[in-house]
Amino acid sequence: MKFVKMQGLGNDFIIVNDMEEKISLIKEQIRLLCDRHFGIGADGLMLVRPSKIYDIKMLFYNQDGTEAAMCGNGVRCFAKFVYDKKIVKKNQFDIETKAGKISPEIIDDKVQVNMGRADFNPQNIPVDIEKNKIMNEILSINGKNIVFSSVLVGVPHTIIEVENLERYPVKDLGPLIEKHRFFPFGTNVNFVEALDSKEIKMVTWERGVGLTLACGTGACAVATIMREKEKIKDRVLIHLPGGDLVIKFVNEDIFMLGPAKQVYKGEINI
Ligand SMILES: N[C@H](CCC[C@H](N)C(=O)O)C(=O)O
């Protein structure tokens, strides 16, 4: 099976051109391909498929083999791949994803993506709390009360503001919050330190992966919640361990601008 390895701010992916729709990978095979010792190694894997309703279709799978509706860094890499390989012959197009239509624009070596609108409805995120919005709720872990907000930006995201990101126990709390009983399908967990009204630092414990160098939908979710709390306006620079993303709001649509780079291409027997 031929593949290309790409990365967006160090969030890395295996991309397979399956326009002939001949490839069907079971969960265990995806997990093996993404394994950093027994396989290629990646945070996720994407299949390129034809779409009946938009220009192209993206299927996304996490490192553990679970399918997810969307991936922000992944969709930038996906868009760059299909454009560079001339599978799609325009630099602005629409991708069919399980989270709906996602519209990227290739701008030199960067990709700007209209990520659509955030969904605050707990039933859609989903979060098992009887409220209209999940803002500044409390969950307790090992006797520690944690204030959190949750929102759907393609996939479920939980946002926790902290005073000092470097000193916060992200690796201990991330997996416990990811699988907390409030989140029936799990959640991505974003730990955020607001620097000022224009800059934010964050790190994400990703559902189905663990700590990653960047999370695109997470950055969009963080910007959404911080804007909802009126801590930022309609544009923010987000610093992630793997690099920076610019997130801006046009009306209620979320736009994400960031890099997407090919690392290498290869072939593997699976
Ligand atoms: N792990 C996420 C999907 C990938 C999200 C992340 N890689 C991004 O860039 O948005 C989930 O299961 O919801």
Notes on the protein architecture:
By secondary structure, the chain is of the alpha+beta class. It has two domains: 2-115 and 258-267, Diaminopimelate Epimerase, Chain A, domain 1 (Roll), CATH 3.10.310; 134-251, Diaminopimelate Epimerase, Chain A, domain 1. Helices cover 16% and strands 43% of the residues. The protein has helices at 27-34, 72-84, 170-178, 216-228, and strands at 2-8, 11-17, 44-49, 56-62, 67-68, 95-97, 100-107, 110-114, 134-141, 144-153, 155-161, 188-194, 199-206, 210-212, 235-240, 243-250, 253-259, 261-267. The chain has an 18-stranded mixed sheet that branches. The longest helix is centred in the N-terminal third of the chain and has 13 residues, at 72-84. The protein is globular and about 50 Å long. Bound molecules: 2,6-diaminopimelic acid (API). Substrate binds at residues 11, 62, 72-73, 188, 206-207, 216-217. Catalyzes the stereoinversion of LL-2,6-diaminopimelate (L,L-DAP) to meso-diaminopimelate (meso-DAP), a precursor of L-lysine and an essential component of the bacterial peptidoglycan. It comes from Garciella nitratireducens DSM 15102. One of its GO terms (molecular function) is diaminopimelate epimerase activity.
